[in-house]
Amino acid sequence: LLCLCCRAAAERLRYTIPEELARGSLVGPLARDLGLSPDELRKLQLSEDKQYFTVSHTDGNLYVKERLDREELCGESASCSISFEALVHNPLNVFHVQVDIQDVNDNMPRFLQDNFHLEINEFTSPGARFYLGMAEDSDLGSNSLQSYELEDNAYFAVEAKESEDGSKSAELVLRRALDREREQNLRLILTALDGGDPPRSGTAQLWINVTDANDNPPVFAQDRYRTSLREDTPPGSTVLNISASDADSGTNAHITYGFGKMPAKVLQKFLVDAERGTITLQEPLDFEDTRAFSLAVEARDGGGLVAHCKVEVEVLDVNDNAPEVTLTSVSSPVPEDAPAGTVVALLKVRDRDSGESGQVTCELSGEAPLSIMESSGGSYKVVTASALDREQAAEHRVTVVARDRGSPALSSSTELVLEVSDVNDNAPVFEEAEYSAYVSENNAVGALVLRVSARDLDAGANGRVSYWLAGGSAGAAGAAPLVSVEARSGAVYAQRSLDYEQCREFSVAVRAQDGGTPARSSTATVRVFVLDQNDNAPRVLWPAPAAGAAPGSPPVPPAFEVVPRSAEAGYLVAKVVAVDADAGRNAWLSYELVQASEPALFRLGLHSGEVRTARAVSDRDAAKQRLVALVKDHGQPALSATATLHVVLADSLHQALPELSERPAGADAPTELQFYLVLALALLSALFLLSVALAVLARLRRA
Question: Where is the Cadherin domain (predicted)?
Answer without folding.
Answer: 9-111, 112-220, 221-325, 326-430, 431-540, 563-660
